[in-house]
Write a structure and sequence with these properties.
This protein is an alpha/beta fold and about 290 residues long. About 35% of the residues lie in helices and about 20% in strands. The chain has 9 helices and 13 strands. Strand 7 and strand 8 form a beta hairpin. The longest helix is centred in the middle third of the chain and has 17 residues. The protein is globular.
Length: about 290
Protein backbone atom coordinates (compact mmCIF):
# COMPACT_ATOMS: atom_id res chain seq x y z
CA UNK A 1 0.00 0.00 0.00
CA UNK A 2 1.31 3.44 -0.93
CA UNK A 3 2.59 5.48 2.02
CA UNK A 4 2.09 8.93 0.48
CA UNK A 5 -0.54 11.07 -1.21
CA UNK A 6 1.56 12.97 -3.74
CA UNK A 7 5.13 12.23 -4.80
CA UNK A 8 7.88 14.52 -6.03
CA UNK A 9 10.46 12.89 -8.30
CA UNK A 10 13.71 14.86 -8.01
CA UNK A 11 15.19 13.89 -11.35
CA UNK A 12 18.79 13.68 -12.49
CA UNK A 13 19.98 12.07 -15.70
CA UNK A 14 19.53 8.60 -17.14
CA UNK A 15 16.60 6.25 -17.56
CA UNK A 16 15.46 5.83 -13.96
CA UNK A 17 13.50 9.10 -13.46
CA UNK A 18 11.55 8.46 -16.67
CA UNK A 19 10.76 4.91 -15.52
CA UNK A 20 9.44 6.20 -12.18
CA UNK A 21 7.34 8.92 -13.81
CA UNK A 22 5.78 6.41 -16.19
CA UNK A 23 5.01 4.04 -13.31
CA UNK A 24 3.22 6.85 -11.45
CA UNK A 25 1.37 7.94 -14.58
CA UNK A 26 0.23 4.42 -15.46
CA UNK A 27 -1.14 3.88 -11.95
CA UNK A 28 -2.91 7.25 -11.99
CA UNK A 29 -0.87 8.50 -9.02
CA UNK A 30 -0.55 12.18 -8.23
CA UNK A 31 3.06 13.30 -8.81
CA UNK A 32 5.38 16.03 -10.07
CA UNK A 33 8.83 15.82 -11.63
CA UNK A 34 11.35 18.40 -10.45
CA UNK A 35 14.04 18.38 -13.14
CA UNK A 36 17.57 19.25 -12.06
CA UNK A 37 18.94 21.70 -14.57
CA UNK A 38 21.87 20.38 -16.58
CA UNK A 39 21.24 16.77 -15.53
CA UNK A 40 17.63 15.75 -16.23
CA UNK A 41 16.61 14.62 -19.70
CA UNK A 42 14.47 17.08 -21.67
CA UNK A 43 11.86 14.37 -22.30
CA UNK A 44 10.83 14.65 -18.64
CA UNK A 45 9.22 18.00 -19.47
CA UNK A 46 6.20 16.06 -20.74
CA UNK A 47 5.29 15.26 -17.12
CA UNK A 48 3.87 17.81 -14.65
CA UNK A 49 6.60 19.68 -12.80
CA UNK A 50 9.29 22.34 -12.92
CA UNK A 51 13.00 22.76 -13.53
CA UNK A 52 15.34 23.71 -10.68
CA UNK A 53 18.99 24.51 -10.22
CA UNK A 54 20.72 21.90 -8.06
CA UNK A 55 21.67 24.61 -5.53
CA UNK A 56 18.09 25.93 -5.20
CA UNK A 57 17.21 23.85 -2.15
CA UNK A 58 14.70 26.41 -0.93
CA UNK A 59 12.96 26.43 -4.31
CA UNK A 60 12.78 22.62 -4.34
CA UNK A 61 11.21 22.57 -0.89
CA UNK A 62 8.79 25.39 -1.78
CA UNK A 63 7.71 23.71 -5.04
CA UNK A 64 7.08 20.41 -3.27
CA UNK A 65 5.04 22.04 -0.51
CA UNK A 66 3.07 24.27 -2.90
CA UNK A 67 2.29 21.21 -5.04
CA UNK A 68 0.97 19.32 -2.02
CA UNK A 69 3.72 16.69 -2.03
CA UNK A 70 4.27 14.73 1.15
CA UNK A 71 6.96 12.39 -0.19
CA UNK A 72 9.91 12.46 -2.56
CA UNK A 73 12.25 10.14 -4.38
CA UNK A 74 15.69 11.12 -5.64
CA UNK A 75 16.50 9.35 -8.89
CA UNK A 76 18.98 9.60 -11.72
CA UNK A 77 22.59 10.52 -12.31
CA UNK A 78 23.86 13.77 -10.81
CA UNK A 79 27.56 14.44 -11.24
CA UNK A 80 29.30 16.39 -8.52
CA UNK A 81 29.04 20.08 -9.44
CA UNK A 82 31.69 22.76 -9.30
CA UNK A 83 30.59 24.32 -6.02
CA UNK A 84 32.30 27.63 -6.83
CA UNK A 85 30.10 28.09 -9.90
CA UNK A 86 26.78 27.42 -8.17
CA UNK A 87 24.28 30.19 -7.52
CA UNK A 88 22.32 28.96 -4.50
CA UNK A 89 19.12 30.47 -3.17
CA UNK A 90 18.99 31.51 0.49
CA UNK A 91 18.29 27.99 1.73
CA UNK A 92 21.01 26.51 -0.44
CA UNK A 93 23.46 29.15 0.81
CA UNK A 94 22.59 28.39 4.44
CA UNK A 95 23.13 24.69 3.81
CA UNK A 96 26.31 25.18 1.76
CA UNK A 97 28.89 24.80 4.57
CA UNK A 98 27.33 21.51 5.66
CA UNK A 99 27.07 20.29 2.06
CA UNK A 100 30.66 21.17 1.22
CA UNK A 101 31.95 19.50 4.41
CA UNK A 102 29.99 16.35 3.58
CA UNK A 103 31.13 16.42 -0.05
CA UNK A 104 34.75 16.23 1.09
CA UNK A 105 33.92 12.86 2.69
CA UNK A 106 32.17 11.43 -0.37
CA UNK A 107 28.91 11.25 -2.29
CA UNK A 108 27.28 9.08 0.35
CA UNK A 109 27.83 11.69 3.05
CA UNK A 110 26.51 14.39 0.71
CA UNK A 111 23.31 12.45 0.03
CA UNK A 112 22.85 11.86 3.76
CA UNK A 113 22.77 15.64 4.28
CA UNK A 114 20.10 16.07 1.61
CA UNK A 115 17.95 13.26 3.02
CA UNK A 116 18.24 14.77 6.50
CA UNK A 117 17.27 18.22 5.17
CA UNK A 118 14.16 16.99 3.35
CA UNK A 119 13.04 14.85 6.28
CA UNK A 120 13.41 17.83 8.61
CA UNK A 121 10.90 19.64 6.36
CA UNK A 122 8.39 16.85 6.92
CA UNK A 123 8.80 14.91 3.66
CA UNK A 124 8.84 11.12 3.50
CA UNK A 125 11.94 10.06 1.54
CA UNK A 126 11.34 6.79 -0.33
CA UNK A 127 13.44 4.53 -2.51
CA UNK A 128 12.91 4.09 -6.24
CA UNK A 129 11.95 0.44 -5.74
CA UNK A 130 8.99 1.55 -3.61
CA UNK A 131 7.73 3.73 -6.45
CA UNK A 132 8.18 1.09 -9.16
CA UNK A 133 8.07 -2.39 -7.69
CA UNK A 134 9.72 -4.18 -10.62
CA UNK A 135 13.13 -2.54 -10.22
CA UNK A 136 14.89 -4.73 -7.65
CA UNK A 137 17.42 -7.24 -8.99
CA UNK A 138 16.12 -10.61 -7.85
CA UNK A 139 18.37 -13.55 -7.06
CA UNK A 140 19.42 -15.54 -10.12
CA UNK A 141 19.88 -14.91 -13.81
CA UNK A 142 18.24 -12.12 -15.78
CA UNK A 143 18.11 -13.77 -19.18
CA UNK A 144 19.29 -17.25 -20.09
CA UNK A 145 23.03 -17.13 -19.34
CA UNK A 146 24.66 -18.05 -16.02
CA UNK A 147 28.13 -17.13 -14.74
CA UNK A 148 30.69 -19.94 -14.91
CA UNK A 149 33.16 -20.86 -12.15
CA UNK A 150 35.80 -18.40 -13.39
CA UNK A 151 33.27 -15.57 -13.40
CA UNK A 152 32.18 -16.47 -9.88
CA UNK A 153 35.76 -16.16 -8.68
CA UNK A 154 35.93 -12.69 -10.22
CA UNK A 155 32.61 -11.85 -8.57
CA UNK A 156 33.99 -12.92 -5.20
CA UNK A 157 37.02 -10.65 -5.51
CA UNK A 158 35.05 -7.68 -6.85
CA UNK A 159 32.47 -7.93 -4.07
CA UNK A 160 35.17 -8.09 -1.38
CA UNK A 161 36.88 -5.08 -2.95
CA UNK A 162 33.78 -2.86 -2.94
CA UNK A 163 32.96 -3.97 0.60
CA UNK A 164 36.49 -3.20 1.83
CA UNK A 165 36.44 0.28 0.27
CA UNK A 166 33.10 1.16 1.86
CA UNK A 167 34.57 3.17 4.77
CA UNK A 168 36.22 5.47 2.22
CA UNK A 169 32.89 6.24 0.47
CA UNK A 170 34.25 5.14 -2.92
CA UNK A 171 31.92 3.89 -5.68
CA UNK A 172 29.66 0.87 -5.80
CA UNK A 173 31.29 -1.05 -8.64
CA UNK A 174 34.44 -2.85 -9.69
CA UNK A 175 35.64 -4.68 -12.80
CA UNK A 176 37.71 -7.83 -12.33
CA UNK A 177 39.01 -10.17 -15.05
CA UNK A 178 40.71 -13.48 -14.14
CA UNK A 179 41.44 -12.07 -10.69
CA UNK A 180 43.01 -8.92 -12.14
CA UNK A 181 41.38 -5.66 -11.02
CA UNK A 182 40.76 -3.53 -14.10
CA UNK A 183 38.85 -0.68 -12.48
CA UNK A 184 37.16 0.60 -9.35
CA UNK A 185 34.25 2.97 -9.73
CA UNK A 186 35.01 6.40 -8.30
CA UNK A 187 33.60 9.86 -8.99
CA UNK A 188 33.19 9.27 -12.75
CA UNK A 189 30.34 6.73 -12.42
CA UNK A 190 29.78 3.33 -13.98
CA UNK A 191 29.50 4.27 -17.65
CA UNK A 192 32.72 6.27 -17.73
CA UNK A 193 34.50 3.58 -15.73
CA UNK A 194 33.49 1.01 -18.35
CA UNK A 195 34.56 3.26 -21.21
CA UNK A 196 37.92 3.63 -19.46
CA UNK A 197 38.19 -0.18 -19.29
CA UNK A 198 37.32 -0.55 -22.97
CA UNK A 199 40.23 1.76 -23.88
CA UNK A 200 42.86 -0.12 -21.87
CA UNK A 201 45.49 -1.97 -23.94
CA UNK A 202 44.99 -5.75 -24.15
CA UNK A 203 47.78 -6.57 -21.68
CA UNK A 204 46.23 -4.33 -19.00
CA UNK A 205 42.87 -6.00 -19.57
CA UNK A 206 44.38 -9.33 -18.62
CA UNK A 207 44.73 -10.85 -22.08
CA UNK A 208 47.77 -13.12 -22.50
CA UNK A 209 50.14 -12.45 -25.44
CA UNK A 210 48.74 -13.98 -28.60
CA UNK A 211 45.47 -14.87 -26.89
CA UNK A 212 42.32 -14.63 -28.97
CA UNK A 213 40.18 -12.26 -26.92
CA UNK A 214 37.09 -13.88 -25.50
CA UNK A 215 34.62 -12.47 -23.01
CA UNK A 216 35.89 -12.90 -19.46
CA UNK A 217 35.55 -10.96 -16.27
CA UNK A 218 32.70 -9.17 -14.55
CA UNK A 219 31.30 -5.81 -13.66
CA UNK A 220 29.99 -6.15 -10.10
CA UNK A 221 27.77 -3.59 -8.42
CA UNK A 222 26.70 -3.61 -4.79
CA UNK A 223 25.82 -0.98 -2.16
CA UNK A 224 28.62 0.38 -0.05
CA UNK A 225 28.55 -0.85 3.56
CA UNK A 226 26.46 1.52 5.66
CA UNK A 227 24.90 3.16 2.59
CA UNK A 228 21.57 5.00 2.84
CA UNK A 229 19.43 2.46 0.97
CA UNK A 230 16.72 4.90 -0.14
CA UNK A 231 18.98 6.84 -2.47
CA UNK A 232 21.63 6.02 -5.06
CA UNK A 233 21.27 2.25 -5.11
CA UNK A 234 23.47 0.54 -7.73
CA UNK A 235 21.59 0.68 -11.02
CA UNK A 236 22.03 -0.81 -14.49
CA UNK A 237 20.12 -0.58 -17.77
CA UNK A 238 20.47 -1.56 -21.40
CA UNK A 239 23.37 0.85 -21.95
CA UNK A 240 25.30 -0.86 -19.16
CA UNK A 241 24.94 -4.18 -20.97
CA UNK A 242 26.25 -2.65 -24.19
CA UNK A 243 29.26 -1.13 -22.46
CA UNK A 244 30.09 -4.40 -20.67
CA UNK A 245 30.04 -6.14 -24.05
CA UNK A 246 32.32 -3.43 -25.46
CA UNK A 247 34.77 -4.17 -22.62
CA UNK A 248 34.73 -7.87 -23.62
CA UNK A 249 33.54 -8.88 -20.17
CA UNK A 250 31.52 -12.02 -19.55
CA UNK A 251 28.78 -10.38 -17.58
CA UNK A 252 27.29 -8.26 -14.81
CA UNK A 253 26.78 -9.27 -11.18
CA UNK A 254 24.39 -7.35 -8.91
CA UNK A 255 23.66 -7.70 -5.22
CA UNK A 256 20.23 -9.33 -5.13
CA UNK A 257 17.50 -7.18 -3.55
CA UNK A 258 19.98 -4.32 -3.17
CA UNK A 259 20.43 -3.09 -6.75
CA UNK A 260 18.10 -1.83 -9.47
CA UNK A 261 17.52 -2.91 -13.07
CA UNK A 262 15.76 -0.42 -15.35
CA UNK A 263 13.68 -2.15 -18.07
CA UNK A 264 14.41 -5.70 -16.96
CA UNK A 265 12.97 -7.37 -20.10
CA UNK A 266 15.03 -5.19 -22.44
CA UNK A 267 18.15 -5.83 -20.33
CA UNK A 268 17.53 -9.60 -20.54
CA UNK A 269 17.04 -9.47 -24.31
CA UNK A 270 20.16 -7.36 -24.85
CA UNK A 271 22.26 -9.57 -22.56
CA UNK A 272 21.18 -12.74 -24.36
CA UNK A 273 21.81 -11.13 -27.73
CA UNK A 274 25.30 -10.06 -26.66
CA UNK A 275 26.06 -13.42 -25.05
CA UNK A 276 26.70 -12.09 -21.55
CA UNK A 277 25.12 -12.84 -18.18
CA UNK A 278 23.30 -10.53 -15.81
CA UNK A 279 23.09 -12.21 -12.42
CA UNK A 280 21.66 -11.28 -9.05
CA UNK A 281 23.91 -12.86 -6.44
CA UNK A 282 23.42 -13.41 -2.74
CA UNK A 283 26.28 -12.96 -0.29
CA UNK A 284 26.28 -16.60 0.78
CA UNK A 285 27.15 -17.60 -2.80
CA UNK A 286 30.45 -15.73 -2.59
Amino acid sequence: MRRWNKLAIIAGGGELPHKLALSCQNRGDDFVVLRLQGFADNTLARFPGKECNIAEIGKLIRLMKNSGCDALVMAGVVHRPDFSSLRPDWRGAALAPKVIAAARKGDGALLDVLVETFEAEGFLVVGAEEVSGDLFAAAGAVGSILPNDMAREDMRKASALVRALGPFDVGQGAVVRNGFVLAIEAAEGTDKMLRRCANLPPDLRGFDPGETPEPRGVLLKRPKPGQEMRVDLPTIGVETVRLVHECQLAGIALAADAALIVDRELVAEEADRRGIFVYGYQDHEL
